[in-house]
Specification:
This protein is α/β, with parallel strands linked by helices. The chain folds into two domains: 1-98 and 202-427, Adenylosuccinate Synthetase, subunit A, domain 3 (Adenylosuccinate Synthetase, Chain A, domain 3, Alpha-Beta Complex), CATH 3.90.170; 103-194, Orthogonal Bundle (Adenylosuccinate Synthetase, subunit A, domain 2). 32% of the residues lie in helices and 21% in strands. The longest helix is centred in the middle third of the chain and has 22 residues, at 153-174. The chain is globular, with a radius of gyration of 22 Å. Bound molecules: guanosine-5'-diphosphate, 6-O-phosphoryl inosine monophosphate and magnesium ion.
Length: 427
């Protein structure tokens, strides 16, 4: 023991990568349990910036075993290019373990993701175009290709044939594209087999044994609560379970073994892609948050939509995930504002609503009701204790903490590993 889950509380990019990296020194395993290379985590260590997509953030910590769990979807070309890039920078990736049951993202699914978005037009989701949705759909449809399939050419060929029978109909007849040949897909996947083989393991067995041996396992979520396919702002979500429940199914660690659930929450809110966002700012203040917070996607480079902290979202995340601790990030980005609005509830068709509404229609109509807290101007980068925060920054933190549904155990005051106020231990 223990097993710790780490998830995003809002719409992603809260700083999960930095938080996982911070915990790296005290955990033995870091398991990515959902998503794929739609995720983008930027981690800054000693002034060096690393952008990770498919690899668990624990890959950067010597001694930690990084694990890609069964709930992840893997684009093998991306996996090996990330490994090669890290090795070139002197990072040892040899400890990486990959679940035999994780699904692969075949090239035709990235193609389908992009054409489907184009086909949807104004109804598009704004996906990352990485083939994530079609690959999870194949998994549920039972026509997916798994890691283990690349070690049995016969099975691989049968599965690719079965899948392409269907996909080529779509590509050719609906989307007016060229058909993809079975041979090209099979030979590409087989080309990775020997490099992949030594990494592949029965990861639920490995992790169960690790917990039995008293090791600490961190289950790292990609995306976030409001992008979860069940609990997020459907259909403007990703196609996996990014909430704490997904940590169990996506890793094979049972619920009873989870000791702690940490949610990462930004001191304001951002979102990439389409969908409702009550506190979104369309003005100069939104532009300010974007430029000071460097809110541009790590994966697609798209400008992130920016808005204020939303208390109903924080409480929703606390409830859905069973959050034991929040890590509040990017407090430093708010420095210099005269006042900081916080969304305390919504007004929906003339009525006050204190929690996330039940229906999509209501959420689209939700207008934020704000409380305004006084701002601060002192630089926070060197602050390492709550007591040293400027009075108004401390009051902002205390105000959010009292209303977000769980204690704030750490606070980020800059992108670097050390730019963190540690309130209580996270393990
Ligand atoms: P993730 O997807 O949740 O891992 O988050 P991203 O890496 O996509 O986006 C978070 C960004 O904020 C990264 O560029 C981090 O380096 C940066 N970051 C994380 N914590 C802080 C913080 O406390 N302050 C500042 N200024 N930047 C932070
Ligand atoms: P991290 O782990 C922010 C969003 C996309 C789109 C929707 C569906 O870095 O927080 P998909 O390609 O998953 O089918 O796109 O989900 N999205 C993210 N937004 N951060 C992410 O990951 C995201 N991963 C997917 O922008 O709106
Ligand atoms: Mg990100």
């Amino acid at each position: 023991m223990p097993a710790i889950v780490l998830v995003g509380a809002q719409w992603g990019d809260e700083g999960k990568g930095k938080a996982t990296d911070l915990l790296g020194s005290v955990v033995d395993y870091v398991v990515k349990f959902n998503g794929g290379n739609n995720a983008g985590h930027t981690i800054v260590i000693d002034g060096e910036r690393y952008a990770l997509h498919l690899l668990p953030s624990g890959i950067l910590t010597p001694g930690v075993v990084p694990v890609i769990g069964n709930g992840v979807v893997i684009d093998l070309a991306v996996l090996f290019s990330e490994i090669t890039a890290l090795e070139a920078r002197g990072i040892d990736t040899s400890r990486l373990v990959v679940s035999a049951n994780a699904h692969l993202v075949p090239t035709y699914n990235a193609a389908l993701d992009k054409v489907t978005e184009r086909f949807l037009g104004s109804r598009r989701i704004g996906t990352t175009g990485r083939g994530i949705g079609p690959t999870y759909a194949d998994k549920m449809n039972r026509i997916g290709i798994r890691v283990q399939d690349v070690f049995d050419e016969n099975i691989l060929r049968q599965k690719v044939e079965g899948s392409l029978d269907l996909k080529n109909q779509l590509l050719v007849k609906i989307y007016n594209r060229r058909a993809i040949t079975v041979d090209s897909v099979v030979s590409e996947l087989l080309s990775y087999a020997e490099r992949l083989r030594p990494m592949v393991a029965d990861t639920p067995l490995l992790l169960g044994q690790a917990l039995d041996a008293g090791k600490t396992v961190l289950l790292e979520g990609g995306q976030a609560t409001l992008l979860d396919v069940d609990h997020g702002t459907y259909p403007f979500v990703t196609s996996s379970n990014a909430t704490a429940g997904g940590a169990c199914t996506g890793s094979g660690i049972p619920p009873g073994r989870i000791d702690r659930v940490i949610a990462i929450v930004k001191a304001y809110t951002t979102r990439v892609g389409e969908g409702p966002f009550p506190t979104e700012l369309g003005d100069a203040l939104g532009e300010r948050l974007r430029s000071v917070g460097k809110e541009y996607g790590t994966t697609t480079g798209r400008p992130r939509r920016c808005g204020w902290y939303d208390l109903p979202i924080a409480r929703y995340a606390a409830r859905i995930n069973g959050v034991t601790d929040f890590v509040l990030t990017k407090l430093d980005v708010l420095t210099g504002l005269e006042q900081v609005p916080v969304c305390v509830a919504y007004e929906i068709d003339g009525e006050r609503c204190d929690e996330i509404p039940m229906t999509q229609t209501d959420f689209h109509h939700a207008k934020p009701i704000y409380e305004y807290l006084p701002g601060w101007s002192d630089d926070l980068a060197k602050v390492r204790t709550l007591e040293d925060l400027p009075t108004n920054a401390r009051a902002y933190v205390d105000y959010l903490e009292a209303r977000s549904g769980a204690p704030f155990s750490a606070i980020g005051v800059g992108p670097s590993r050390d730019e963190t106020i540690s309130v209580r231990s996270l393990v």
